[in-house]
TrEMBL record:
InterPro entries: Signal_recog_part_SRP72_RNA-bd (IPR013699), SRP72 (IPR026270), SRP72_TPR-like (IPR031545), TPR-like_helical_dom_sf (IPR011990), TPR_rpt (IPR019734). It is found in: Cytoplasm; Endoplasmic reticulum. Residues 560-570, 662-678 have a biased composition (Basic residues). It holds the Pfam family TPR_8. The gene is Srp72. Residues 572-593 have a biased composition (Basic and acidic residues). This is Signal recognition particle subunit SRP72. TPR repeats lie at residues 226-259. Residues 540-678 are annotated as: Disordered.
Length: 678
């Protein structure tokens, strides 16, 4: 900007220098000239404005804001409103920037553009959408494409964080930014396959766009594609393809992108995949979520999710104090949020303090009735873990909004059955059926149609009562079912069976409604059925037998039915003529004739020399050669004396000839041989 000459030639020359440097983009040099001008006239409004602009262009937002605040008399809000709001925006003082914009006397196009950005950062998406629509409608310049991109980003944010159904903006997705934002909106709706196709298109457009610039390298393209690949990995994770997602996440991290927000999101998602496994890797990834500036790049819900995962990781790594500290901080930030309380309760359970966990959950449920249902479900789970099934049932039955749900009815009936409390289980069925009757009566104005869920509950109640012998109580349910479907033969048969105990005459009347056997076309091969693998009775194919032959055949059948006994294995030296030793089943030490081991008897007969060599006395140690010598006296405790010339030994009493020595003797021999230098 040029200022009129003040009479001094030096000032005019300085302004010329400022103008030239500004056109060349050399704002550092321009700032030096502006400072010289301000030395001549410190309150020159144009010079002060130029100084602020130079500082902003050089990224010195704090200094620029300081200049504005120290010259408020000269730089009034209507003159410098945009520059001040922009500095506050870049310094992440978003609330201050909003106040500055709103206090400006004139809303210029630049302020409106900045206003839209500020609203987006404040997550006021409805106001932001209106601001950008107004800008697009009333502006015609080269920045129209950027405004449309911002508009699509707002719609994507609404779909993702507020679960608002995005409206069709009618934007032509000619750029990869528009395709990417459209994919994000589809992810918010849960249309993952469509979103993946959009991201693939965005990747293709990005490559085409960047490859046209000869100065852009492949590394630059991959860095630009990192955010698109990050969303692709997120979709894979949501689809359960965790291995593919993890591989793509790690590829992005290896690129070392400069976007700290992207790195924080990827690190958080890897931690969620690891869960309570691979905690060392998760600890390393947590550092990426703590990078400087992350809090300004992510939405509140993203930051909250990261903090929740930090608390859970502390719990998984047994850092109890850290877990309590993080969860307490989260609870103070969001008192109505359920997750911090659940984390605290989980930590108490890990410390075996289930009673304290239940008290904590009960207090939260009393203070926040809106979350009472989820809290009570958790409390019931804790009671089940403690084995208090009846107390868990009481907690579940106190959740009125879930009493009629089939899942809740099934859970309660199962637990009451486990506790053998059939009356309470039937009461659960009755209450659920009554709820559906009242609900349908209010919806149909007195008509009495039955919904599939209602009929299913009646059917389950009837079957349950019949199973537990409550046929009298099942009659009303069965009559209701038969009334709804008179052609249901199975229900009719159950009803007749139930009435047979209560009112036999009624059972006879109802039995007339059963179809006759003539109407039943049962194409059953009786022979094949009887001869099937699962048949309990197989008909004999032989003809009729009479008299003695029939008795004989029956007798043979009886013999066949007897289970054959396997012959026991006998010792090799077994002799049926000799009575076995009656103490043969007792351990040797417990037998009456055991005299203990005689030590040192054959000490002098042990062979010496190298291993495997024979000695002169080896023949004397051969048991087979001495077995023929008669025993001096019969063994005490034997049933019969053995003759001196019989050479017979009782079974189970002596080892066969040539049998190896006992393990203990082998070990002793090995130890003695070991002294030879092995």
């Amino acid at each position: 900007k040029m200022a009129s000459a003040s009479g001094a030639g030096s000032a005019a020359a300085l302004w010329s220098e400022v103008n030239r440097c500004g056109q060349n983009g050399d704002f550092a040099r321009a700032l030096k000239s502006v400072n010289k001008i301000l030395q001549i006239n410190k309150d020159d409004v144009t010079a002060l404005q130029c100084k602020v602009v130079c500082l902003i262009q050089n990224g010195n937002f704090k200094e620029a804001l300081s200049v504005i605040n120290t010259h408020t008399k000269v730089l009034t809000s209507d003159i410098i409103a945009f520059e001040k709001a922009y500095c506050e925006y870049r310094l992440n003082r978003i609330e201050n920037a909003l106040k500055t914009i709103q206090s400006a006397s004139q809303q210029t196009d630049k302020l409106k553009e900045l206003y839209g950005q500020v609203l987006y950062r404040l997550e006021r998406y409805d106001d932001c959408l209106a601001a950008y629509r107004d800008l697009i409608r009333n502006s015609q310049d080269e920045y129209e494409e950027e405004r449309k991109t911002n508009l699509s980003a707002v719609v994507a944010a609404q779909s993702t964080w507020e679960k608002v159904m995005p409206e069709d903006l009618g934007l032509r997705e000619a750029t990869y930014e528009l395709c990417y934002n459209s994919a994000c909106a589809l992810i918010g709706q849960g249309k993952l396959n469509e979103a993946m196709k959009k991201l693939q298109k965005a990747e293709e457009l990005c490559r085409q766009s960047l490859s046209e610039d000869s100065d852009v390298t492949e590394e630059d393209i991959e860095a630009e594609l990192a955010i698109i690949h990050g969303q692709m990995a997120y979709i894979m994770q949501l689809q359960g393809r965790t291995e593919d997602a993890l591989q793509l996440y790690n590829q992005i991290i290896k690129l070392k992108p400069t976007d700290v927000g992207l790195l924080a999101v990827i690190a958080n998602n890897i931690i969620t995949i690891n869960k309570d496994q691979n905690v060392f890797d998760s600890k390393k990834k947590v550092k990426l979520t703590n990078a400087e500036g992350v809090e300004h790049k992510l939405s509140k819900k993203q930051l909250q999710a990261i903090e929740f995962n930090k608390a859970l990781l502390a719990m998984y790594t047994n850092q109890a104090d850290q877990c309590r500290k993080l969860s307490a901080s989260l609870q103070s930030q969001s008192p109505e949020h359920l997750l911090p309380v659940l984390i605290q309760a989980a930590q108490l359970c890990r410390e075996k303090q289930h009673a304290k966990a239940v008290v904590l959950l009960q207090d939260f449920a009393d203070q926040h009735p809106a979350s009472a249902a989820e809290i009570k479900l958790t409390m019931a789970q804790l009671k089940i873990a403690q084995g208090s099934i009846t107390k868990a049932c009481m907690i579940l039955r106190s959740i009125e909004e879930l009493q009629h749900k089939p899942g809740m009815v099934s859970a309660l009936v199962t637990m009451y059955s486990h506790e053998e409390d059939i009356d309470s289980a039937i009461e659960v069925f009755t209450q659920a059926i009554q709820w559906y009757q009242q609900f349908q009566a209010s919806q149909t104005r007195g008509a009495n149609p039955k919904s599939p869920v209602h009929l299913s509950l009646i059917r389950e109640a009837a079957n349950f009562k019949l199973k537990h012998g409550r046929k009298k109580e099942a009659i009303s349910d069965l009559e209701e079912l038969w009334k709804q479907n008179p052609k249901d033969v199975h229900t009719l048969a159950q009803l007749i069976s139930a009435y047979s105990l209560v009112d036999p005459e009624k059972a006879k009347v109802l039995s007339k409604h059963l179809p006759s056997s003539d109407t039943l076309s049962l194409k059953v091969d009786v022979d094949a059925l009887e001869n099937s693998h699962g048949a309990t009775y197989v008909r004999k194919k032989a003809g009729k037998l009479t008299g003695d032959s029939q008795q004989k055949e029956q007798g043979q059948g009886d013999v066949k039915k007897k289970k054959k006994k396997k012959k026991g294995k006998l010792p090799k030296n077994y002799d049926p003529k000799v009575t076995p030793d009656p103490e043969r089943w007792l351990p040797m030490r417990e037998r009456s004739y055991y005299r203990g081991r005689k030590k040192g008897k054959k000490k002098d007969q042990v062979g010496k020399g190298t291993q495997g060599s024979t000695t002169a006395g080896s023949s004397e140690l051969d048991a087979s050669k001495t077995a023929s010598s008669p025993p001096t006296s019969p063994r005490p405790g034997s049933a019969a004396a053995v003759s001196a010339t019989s050479n017979v030994i009782p079974p189970r009493h002596q080892k066969p000839a040539g049998a190896p020595a006992t393990k203990k003797k082998q070990q002793q021999k090995k130890k003695k041989g070991a002294k030879g230098g092995w």
